[in-house]
Write a structure and sequence with these properties.
By secondary structure, this protein is an alpha+beta fold. It contains ten helices and seven strands. It has a five-stranded mixed beta sheet.
């Protein structure tokens, strides 16, 4: 018998105890000499006990058996009408009520536990399968990116060098000099994009050392405050409580993650925005929580935040968070994004082992 859905269980409970009441009434009004009817009614009590066991497991079976016994005792021992069976038979019947309720309920409870364990294992298996598929896709994208980056980088360097040589032949303000300056600037930008491709496709080995995380956060904030994106933003860095927090990791890579996340936050809040950076620790792990006053992440952005080349920006390439995610995973940590429940803006949480 399958478990009833949760929304139907109240109806099942009503049915169980209504059946107990009906059987008891029939039992009470049956003539004393109707031995067969009394035998049938005593056996009918097993049905609501079993049904309660399937609905609520061990507790349901035991409670239903107790209710049946309470309803049957006045009739069994002559307080209300009389069951013509012997006292031994009636006592044995009540013992069997509990035996059936407890045994059936125990089996149902065990089956439910096993089912929950199987569902948990199935979810973990599906999650692992999704991660394997995602890893395979990322590996293919990484190989393609690395190959394209190497193929494009050499001719790009030649284009940039040639543009710089040609620019020397024209004075500042000349129309052709302006075009060559644009060519040089865009070559530099494209080279930066290729560098990000390579960083994602082939991250360099981690050089682990002890890092004071508060100092790294302050250094990145100072850097952003000197740039256009972070000049108008108000950064809030509450004074850390307790001793300095240190983690083991690659200083340059962790700074890159902080820079990527905070730069995204600066672009989200725009002018006169606010970004709050909190740091927590439980002794073994360090947690950095970055909240901004921007519009927050869309559902699509949350689902695809770490997917390479996904971006909601007009000039973005969608590798900042993907690279950050890979770096944090290589460090044995986690990075999560979402929306702040209190302020409504974006929220990024970075967790690193101590």
């Amino acid at each position: 018998m399958p478990d009833p859905p949760a929304r139907r269980r109240p109806l099942v409970d009503v049915g169980v105890y209504a059946a107990i009441a009906l059987i008891s009434i029939l039992h009470y009004v049956a003539p004393v000499h109707a031995y067969q009817l009394h035998d049938i009614y005593r056996r009918l009590y097993y049905l609501p006990i079993i049904l309660a066991s399937f609905s609520h497991g061990l507790a349901g079976g035991a409670i239903a058996a107790a209710v049946v016994c309470l309803a049957y005792i006045p009739h069994a021992f002559g307080h209300i009408s009389h069951d013509p069976a012997s006292d031994t038979q009636k006592i044995l019947e009540m013992v069997l009520y509990f035996a059936v309720g407890i045994t059936t309920g125990s089996l149902v409870s065990r089956r439910k536990r096993t089912q929950r364990q199987l569902e948990t294992s199935l979810q973990q298996l599906r999650s692992a399968e999704d991660q394997l598929v995602s890893s395979a896709k990322l590996a293919a994208v990484g190989q393609l990116s690395a190959g394209l980056a190497h193929e494009i980088r050499n001719p790009l360097a030649s284009i940039k060098g040639s543009a710089e040589i040609l620019a020397d032949d024209f004075p500042a303000g000349h129309p052709k000099r302006r075009l060559l300056d644009v060519l040089i600037e865009e070559s530099v930008r494209l080279n930066d994009v290729l560098s990000r491709f390579l960083a994602f496709a082939r991250p360099r080995p981690i050089e682990r050392r002890t890092i004071e995380i508060d100092g790294e956060i302050a250094a990145v904030v100072d850097l952003l405050e000197g740039q256009k994106e972070g000049r108008a933003v108000r950064f809030e860095l509450p004074a850390p409580a307790g001793p300095a927090v240190r983690v083991r990791g690659d200083r340059d890579q962790i700074r890159q993650v902080l820079l990527n996340v905070l730069l995204n936050a600066c672009q989200a809040v725009g002018d006169a925005g606010r970004i709050r950076i909190d740091r927590f620790t439980d002794g073994s792990r360090c947690r950095i929580v970055i909240r901004d006053s921007g519009p927050g992440f869309s559902r699509e952005a949350v689902q695809n935040a770490f997917t390479p080349f996904f971006t909601t920006k007009e000039r973005g390439i969608g590798l900042g968070l993907a690279v950050s995610h890979r770096i944090i995973e290589l460090h044995g940590g986690r990075i999560r994004i979402g929306n702040d429940e209190d302020g409504g803006g974006g929220r990024v949480e970075i967790e690193l082992p101590g």
